[in-house]
Design a protein that fits this description.
A 9-stranded mixed sheet has the order 4-3-5-2-1-6-8-9-7, with helices on both faces. Helices cover 36% and strands 17% of the residues. It has one domain (4-240): Carbamate kinase. The protein is globular. The protein is of the alpha/beta class and 249 residues long. Helix 1 crosses helix 3 and helix 5 (145-155) runs parallel beside helix 7 (202-211). The relative contact order is 0.16. The protein binds adenosine-5'-diphosphate and uridine-5'-diphosphate (UDP). Adenosine-5'-diphosphate (ADP) binds next to loops.
């Protein structure tokens, strides 16, 4: 078991896709999945890594899908952001059941339910070893929780954004659609943008490029992958500014 001396990062921003929370179900939240994630996050906290968390809302509502079904887009995006708050509450519950201190902050004020997002407070909570769950995305329609994750990661000076998803990295094309697609171990922001590699939205990648924030994309349901990354392991795909010869981020 790694100890606190083995950790490569002191502060990370972990992005979990909402769909991951559904487990085998087609909609909603599977508490078993939450417990498993809480366990993995607890391993990071256990070695002294400060964890910020952004959870998507795709297991409940997505503005674009609601809009395609006839709803007003902005209303749909508001519903999507509220969905991320529900996921955040469920995750806080799972973390607390595992005795991991956590806070939920929301970009949309929701007095009496969760704290309003405040960067300095969030940073202090993280300094104290509490997991901070940033909910309601950026608070604005037409954005995604990928962008929210990169934004919050940059704001709280995380060293890396870890995007946990269904696929085990960034591929030359969507691996769910193209079986011949091959995986990158490393990739530059420019390549991801030029080739429009759909694993993460382009606004999020632009923001990371602007602020030189590395992003690692990996498969969440691979047991131990998260811990392996924070101790310097090579899971998934790393997206960076420049690939050095013997590069190691
Ligand atoms: N070039 C690519 N490499 C990897 N995954 C890709 C790529 N293009 C599209 N994808 C898709 O992106 C999805 C991951 O993005 P994510 O934001 O977690 O999912 P969603 O948008 O469904 O919430 C994967 O399930 C995969 O099918
Ligand atoms: O800053 C944000 C973040 C999210 N959303 C809305 O919330 C939904 C859920 O987020 P996302 O699709 O990023 O979730 P994920 O795919 O990660 O589960 C999005 O579709 C948007 O409708 C938004 O309007 N602004």
């Amino acid at each position: 078991m790694p100890s606190s001396r083995d950790k490569k990062y002191k502060r990370i921003l972990l992005k979990l896709s909402g769909e991951e929370l559904m487990g085998e179900e087609g909609f909603g939240i599977d508490p078993k999945v939450l417990d498993k994630m809480a366990l993995e996050i607890g391993q990071l906290v256990g070695i002294g890594v400060q964890v910020g968390l952004v959870i998507g809302g795709g297991n409940l509502f997505r503005g674009a899908a609601l809009s395609a079904a006839g709803l007003d887009r902005v209303t749909g995006d508001h519903m999507g952001m509220l969905a991320t708050v529900m996921n955040a509450l469920a995750m806080r519950d799972a973390l607390e059941r595992s005795n991991i201190s956590s806070r939920v902050m929301s970009a949309i004020p929701m007095s009496g339910v969760v704290d309003h997002y405040d960067r300095r407070k969030a940073s202090r909570f993280m300094d104290n070893g509490e997991v901070v769950i940033f909910s309601a995305g950026t608070g604005n329609p037409f954005f995604t929780t990928d962008s929210a994750a990169c934004l919050r990661g940059i704001e709280v000076n995380a060293e890396i954004v870890l995007k946990a998803t269904k696929v085990d990295g960034v591929y030359t094309a969507d691996p769910m659609k193209d079986p011949t697609a091959t995986k990158y171990d490393m990739l530059t922001y420019d390549e991801a943008l030029e080739k429009k590699l759909g694993v993460m939205d382009l606004t999020a990648i632009c923001l990371c490029r602007e602020h030189d924030m590395p992003v690692r994309v990996f498969r969440m349901d691979k047991a131990g992958a998260l811990l392996n990354i924070v101790v310097g392991g090579d899971e998934g795909t790393l997206i960076v500014e420049k690939i050095e010869e013997d590069s190691e981020q």
